[in-house]
């Protein structure tokens, strides 16, 4: 059995109360422990006597890519280029078709204007032709925008292809030349 001593009073600990400000102070870094800032260019002339070694640079992204991955990237970019040219060609065809259609509608409109102004349905026919011409012009502008978008995508892909090929020649010249036949098989025909 535990015997309690009536003479001893339980010791009370001083109560710690922390406020939100106290918690923020403890959680924020101490400004005195931050590393010193590098010297400014005006101060660097004073520090010329110190030997400083340049920091070691991490390997560049292009040097960490394997030859296989470069080749896969080349094939993907070439596929993108072919797709962009195909899409630009499709929209070019749509553009040609709409130009032809617009030319025909303008011919019909001119015919209605100059040969049949005395007919009663002249206004209705002109209104219909003008609406058709407006629809075709809208379709033509949309085709021009889409075609230009795909031509821009082709140009971007071409630039990335040139960059990738330059990196391949820089890092893997022997391997790249050895696969020349394989690469030419996928060459985009102009």
Number of strands: 0
Rg, Cα atoms, Å: 38 Å
- The portion of residues forming beta strands comes to under 5%
Query: Helical proportion?
Result: 55-70%
Largest sheet geometry: none
Number of separate helices: 6
| Helix/strand/pairing category | mainly alpha
Mean pLDDT: 75
Helix-strand pattern, N to C? Answer: HHHHHH
Coiled coil: 133-160
Keywords: Coiled coil
Biased composition (Low complexity): 8-19
Region (Disordered): 1-61
Brief synopsis:
This protein is an all-alpha fold and 190 residues long. It has six helices and no strands.
What can you see in these coordinates?
The protein is mostly helical. It has a domain at 83-185. Helix content is 65%, strand content 0%. It contains six helices and no strands. It has helices at 20-27, 41-44, 67-115, 122-171, 173-178, 180-185. The chain is rod-shaped and about 80 Å long.
Helix and strand arrangement:
Blueprint: H1 20-27, H2 41-44, H3 67-115, H4 122-171, H5 173-178, H6 180-185
Helix pairs in contact: 3-4
Region (Disordered): 1-61
Biased composition (Low complexity): 8-19
Coiled coil: 133-160
Task: Please describe the structure with a list of short key phrases separated by commas or semicolons.
single chain; 190 residues; mainly alpha; 0% strand; coiled coil
């Amino acid at each position: 059995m535990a015997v309690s001593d009536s003479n001893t009073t339980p010791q009370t600990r001083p109560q710690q109360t922390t406020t939100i400000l106290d918690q923020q102070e403890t959680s924020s870094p101490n400004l005195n422990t931050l590393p010193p800032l590098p010297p400014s260019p005006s101060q660097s002339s004073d520090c010329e006597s110190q030997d400083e070694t340049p920091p070691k640079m991490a390997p560049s992204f292009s040097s960490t890519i394997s030859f296989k991955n470069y080749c896969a990237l080349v094939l993907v970019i070439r596929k993108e280029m072919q797709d962009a040219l195909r899409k630009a060609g499709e929209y070019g065809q749509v553009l040609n078709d709409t130009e032809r259609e617009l030319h025909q509608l303008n011919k019909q409109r001119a015919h209605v204007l100059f040969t049949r102004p005395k007919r009663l349905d002249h206004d209705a026919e002109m209104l219909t032709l003008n609406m058709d011409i407006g629809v075709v012009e809208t379709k033509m502008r949309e085709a021009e925008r889409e075609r230009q978008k795909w031509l821009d995508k082709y140009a971007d892909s071409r630039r990335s292809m040139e960059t990738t090929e330059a990196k391949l020649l820089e890092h893997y010249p022997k391997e790249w030349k050895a696969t020349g036949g394989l690469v030419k098989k996928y060459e985009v025909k102009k």
